[in-house]
C-alpha cells in the first residue's frame, strides 16, 4: 500500500519534499552553530584573533626557528610584534601631545569659517550664532535629562573594556600554542577521525587555512601600505596629526567596504578644519586614489586567488555580519565566508587552490602544518577470504 501511495505522488513533489527537508535541516544546523557561537562569543572571538595573530606571526617564528628552538622562536616573534606595535603607539601618542594645542586652535578657526560660509552660503541656507547657541543649550539640557542613562551606559562600556582585555589576553594565550605547537594539536585532532576520512579532512582544512592565512596576512600588509601612503600624503599637505590619522586609516582597512571611507571622511574633516577646503579636497581625492590602488592593484597582487569571492557576496556578507554582530560581524564575515566556501569546494571535489597540489598535505605553514596524511590500507584477509572484522562479526551457531 505504501509503495502504491508513493507512486501516486508526482515526481516533482517528491523531489521538492526531499530538498525541502534537507534545507530545513541545514538551516537548523546553521542556526544552532550561530546560537552556540553567541553563547561563547568571548571564546570564539579570542580563538579567531589567535588564528589571525598566528597566521601573521608564524612566518616570523619560522624564520627565527632556523637558529633556535621553536618555543624560543615563538616567544621572540610575539615580542617583536609587541615592540613594533608599542613603537607605533608611542609615536602616535607623542605626535598627538605635540600638536594638540595647534590643532585645537586651527579647528576653532575652521569652525568659524564654516559658520560664516553657512550664514552667507549660496544655497539659501542660513545659520545664525543665536541658533547655534540654542542648539548648544538644547544639547546641555539633553545631557542633564539623560544623565542616569549615560552613567549606566558608561558602566556597561567599562565592562566592555574589561571583556576586551580578557579577549586580548586569551587570544595571545591561544596564539602562543598555535604558533609553537599547532601541528601537534592538528595531528591529535586527525587521530580522532577514522583513517579513511583523514585525507579529505586534511585537504579541506589545508585549503581553508590557506585562504584564511592569506586573507589575514594580506589584510595586514594592505592596511600597512594604506597607512604609510596616507601618512605621506597628509605630511606633504601639512595636515596636523598625520600619524594618528594614518593609524586610523590602517585600522579602517580591517573593516571591509566601510572602514576606509570612514577614515577618509575623518581625515578630510581634520584637513578642512586645519588647512581649508582646498586641502580637504586634495586629501579626499588622495585617499580615494589610495582606495583604488588597494582594490585594483594591492589586493590582486598580495591576496591573489586565496579569497575568491564576488564583490556582491562580500557586500551581502558584510551587511549580514553587521546586522548580526555589529562591527565584529563586519570584520569576520569575509574570512569566514572565504574559508567556508573553500572547504565546501574542496570536499565537493573541486580544486579551489591548484597551487597546493604540489604539497601532499595541502598546507604550507601555520597551526595546521603537519606531515602528509597517508590512508591506512585495509587489513589482510583472514583464511577463507574474509577479513578479521568480518570474522569477528559472525557469531557461532549454538
TrEMBL record:
On the tree of life, the source organism's domain of life is: Bacteria
Q: Which InterPro entries match?
A: AI-2E-like (IPR002549)
Give me the segments passing through the membrane.
Answer: 21-38, 44-65, 72-94, 165-186, 231-255, 262-291, 311-344
GO BP term, example: transmembrane transport
Cellular component (GO) terms are: plasma membrane
Q: Region labeled Disordered — which residues?
A: 350-398
Which keywords, in A-to-Z order, does the entry hold? Cell membrane, Membrane, Transmembrane, Transmembrane helix, Transport
> To which protein family does this belong?
Belongs to the autoinducer-2 exporter (AI-2E) (TC 2.A.86) family.
PANTHER family for this protein: PERMEASE PERM-RELATED (PTHR21716:SF53), TRANSMEMBRANE PROTEIN (PTHR21716)
Q: What is this protein called?
A: Predicted PurR-regulated permease PerM
Amino acid at each position: 500500500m505504501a509503495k502504491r501511495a508513493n507512486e501516486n505522488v508526482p515526481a516533482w513533489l517528491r523531489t521538492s519534499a526531499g530538498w525541502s527537508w534537507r534545507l530545513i535541516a541545514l538551516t537548523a544546523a546553521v542556526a544552532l552553530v550561530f546560537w552556540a557561537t553567541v553563547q561563547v562569543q568571548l571564546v570564539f572571538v579570542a580563538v579567531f584573533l589567535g588564528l589571525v595573530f598566528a597566521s601573521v606571526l608564524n612566518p616570523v617564528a619560522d624564520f627565527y626557528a632556523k637558529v633556535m628552538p621553536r618555543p624560543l622562536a615563538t616567544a621572540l616573534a610575539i615580542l617583536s610584534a609587541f615592540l613594533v606595535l608599542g613603537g607605533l603607539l608611542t609615536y602616535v601618542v607623542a605626535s598627538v601631545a605635540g600638536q594638540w594645542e595647534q590643532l585645537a586652535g586651527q579647528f576653532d578657526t575652521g569652525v568659524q569659517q564654516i559658520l560664516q560660509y553657512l550664514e552667507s552660503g549660496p544655497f539659501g541656507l542660513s545659520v545664525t550664532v543665536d541658533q547655534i547657541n540654542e542648539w548648544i543649550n538644547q544639547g546641555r539640557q539633553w545631557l542633564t535629562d539623560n544623565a542616569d542613562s549615560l552613567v549606566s551606559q558608561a558602566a556597561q562600556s567599562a565592562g566592555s573594556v574589561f571583556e576586551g582585555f580578557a579577549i586580548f589576553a586569551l587570544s595571545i594565550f591561544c596564539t602562543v600554542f598555535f604558533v609553537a605547537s599547532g601541528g601537534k594539536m592538528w595531528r591529535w585532532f586527525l587521530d580522532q577521525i577514522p583513517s579513511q576520512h583523514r585525507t579529505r579532512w586534511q585537504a579541506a582544512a589545508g585549503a581553508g587555512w590557506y585562504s584564511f592565512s592569506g586573507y589575514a596576512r594580506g589584510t595586514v600588509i594592505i592596511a600597512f601600505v594604506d597607512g604609510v601612503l596616507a601618512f605621506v600624503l597628509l605630511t606633504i599637505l601639512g595636515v596636523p596629526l598625520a600619524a594618528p590619522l594614518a593609524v586610523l586609516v590602517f585600522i579602517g582597512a580591517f573593516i571591509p567596504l566601510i572602514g576606509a571611507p570612514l577614515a577618509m571622511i575623518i581625515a578630510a574633516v581634520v584637513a578642512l578644519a586645519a588647512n581649508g577646503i582646498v586641502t580637504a579636497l586634495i586629501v579626499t581625492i588622495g585617499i580615494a586614489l589610495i582606495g583604488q590602488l588597494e582594490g585594483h592593484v594591492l589586493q590582486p597582487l598580495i591576496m591573489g586567488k586565496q579569497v575568491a569571492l564576488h564583490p556582491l557576496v562580500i557586500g551581502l556578507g558584510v551587511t549580514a555580519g553587521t546586522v548580526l554582530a555589529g562591527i565584529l560581524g563586519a570584520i569576520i564575515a569575509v574570512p569566514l565566508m572565504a574559508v567556508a566556501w573553500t572547504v565546501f569546494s574542496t570536499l565537493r571535489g573541486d580544486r579551489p587552490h591548484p597551487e597546493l597540489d604540489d604539497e601532499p598535505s595541502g598546507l604550507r605553514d601555520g597551526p595546521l602544518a603537519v606531515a602528509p596524511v597517508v590512508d591506512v590500507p585495509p587489513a589482510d584477509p583472514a583464511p577463507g577470504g574474509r577479513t578479521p572484522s568480518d570474522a569477528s562479526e559472525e557469531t557461532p551457531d549454538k
